[in-house]
Amino acid sequence: MTDKIILELKNVSKYYDDTPALVNMNLYIRKNEFITLLGPSGCGKTTTLRIIGGFEEADSGDLLFEGRNINNLPAYKRKVNTVFQKYALFPHMNVFDNIAFGQKIKKLDKKIIQENVRRMLRLVNLEDFEKRSVDSLSGGQQQRVAIARALVNEPEVLLLDEPLGALDLKLRKEMQIELKNMQQKLGITFVYVTHDQEEALSMSDTIVVMNNGIIQQIGTPEDIYNEPKNAFVARFIGESNILDGFMTEDFLVEFLGRKIKCVDKCFPGQPNVDVVIRPEDVKVVPAGEGMLDGIVRSVTFKGVHYEMMIEGQGFAWMVHSTIMAPVDSKVGLRVDPNDIHIMRKEAAT
Question: What DSSP state is assigned to residue 138?
Fold first, then answer.
């Protein structure tokens, strides 16, 4: 990834009747970046992708490609290709002809087409499949063909609209690794759309969290997870304990009737805050040895940890721990200052 900006959306808005899909969106995308648009259904992420691809027209704002306004540039003239969740392969063509389709439309030399297609087949690990019917392929293989068909035209930007959504969990995780490796090997900008938080965290250089057509936060996976900007981001990216807090001095927050040290500064004139604590950051200790005591109300085994709901001082704490405390047992809860995150109350959506 470089610092060079390849795509930029400036004050882009889109409405369907009176319903906003995007509201004054400002976003820049860097060359060779793997950027993910993440959010729930209806948040505007696919609309953003379609505007970039030229399949939708913004009601207002500008779309710039390497500094040039491309608002009125038709889709087929843009230096982007798209991979959809429904792969849109041609069932009457074999694998080779599906991948070669765009090259044939451009009327390239047959020898060049053959070299390009075989290079793509090697890239997606389908070297021996060129004569196979696409209907005979598995979902994962069809997805590879769709990616190869998009990449063979050497786009500067590849748009991917939930391309792994139809795959089973094991194959989806395998393809996440393959996609990231492809992107790094080819040096192409990937703009990826998903509602899967784990997928976004594991693949992206940058994540754009969206809700109701508005960008909530932009950052690295680590920033998004560890320093959520508001309650929506904290809840959407993993699980969180979010408590009402009160803060009038730096590095000291009051919640659940007690003052606890933290590492954040207060917001002058805004004492009411949200206190965010991740479940894995709550330590279970013997009763009387933590910042408060609680009663274990439920225990669920999650494979790599136990998820416990622990009631303490009128709040139901979600706790992830490799050590299980029995239901109805009394335990202490401890949180280190570094693991207490403070957010502006009015930033919640």
Answer: -
- Tell me the backbone φ, ψ of residue 53, rounded to 5 degrees: -75, -15
What's the total number of domains in the chain? 2
Find all residues with CB under 8 Å of 175, minimum gap 6, and list them: 140, 143, 164, 167
Give me the percent of the chain exceeding a pLDDT of 90: 79
Q: What is the pTM of this model?
A: 0.88
Structural domain containing residue 177? 5-231
Mean pLDDT, residues 313-332 taken together: 96
Last residue of a domain, one of 231, 256, 280: 231
Q: Which helix (H) or strand (E) holds 181?
A: helix 169-186
Where in 280-347 does DSSP place strands (E)?
Answer: 283-286, 292-301, 306-312, 315-321, 330-334, 341-344
**Residue-averaged pLDDT of the chain:** 93
99 contacts 120 by C-beta, under 8 angstroms: yes
